[in-house]
Amino acid sequence: AFERARYFISDNAMQPYALCACAQPGRLVATNNISVVSVECAGLETPEDGALVPFWVLDHVLQRNQMPDKYILNENHVAFQWQDGSWFKSQLMEGRFPDITWSLLGNVPKARTVIADEWKQAYQFVTDLVQGDLITVDGTGIETGTPPSIVRCDAVLEVLGAKTTKWGAKYLDNVVRVATHWNPEDYPNPGAFSGPGVVGLLVGRST
Q1: pTM score, two decimals?
Q2: DSSP assigned state of 198
Q3: DSSP string, 99-112
């Protein structure tokens, strides 16, 4: 759950909440203002109003060779302990997620379109060749880059037909990592996505 939530947390944001995962009973919520995600975290117990866990806490835990076997989470601090007796403690971030976050997560439509393995392979091929800021996805292919370095790979996504959609590359990357289903056909409205224990929304780009 930490790894999947971390993809959607900014490490350079103006708003403190965007630097955090909001820990709530049974889940972690994260947003970078372009995407929002809820990740199941079985057994997670938190204060009633949740707690803002900074990204560096998730990074520290993920860098360890194993997940902790104990944790304490209260209104001010979070602490983890490992089997070898080592422990890590951090202060939580003050603030709260904006109300729109909960409104969006409470109304996520079902993600209908399967992200096929062949499509993911084409996506990986394109993004490995050129690190563009914008990804263009249509019914027949995936394209990224800026002139003169533009790469396109054929990848059928019948649900789009003749429609062309545009997405921020680093944000779509995160969705492709965690999702099995996605609604690019809803563009320019946010596209719902889902995967094992994950549900969220991704906002596209107008240009």
Answers
A1: 0.92
A2: E
A3: HHHHHHHTTPPPP-
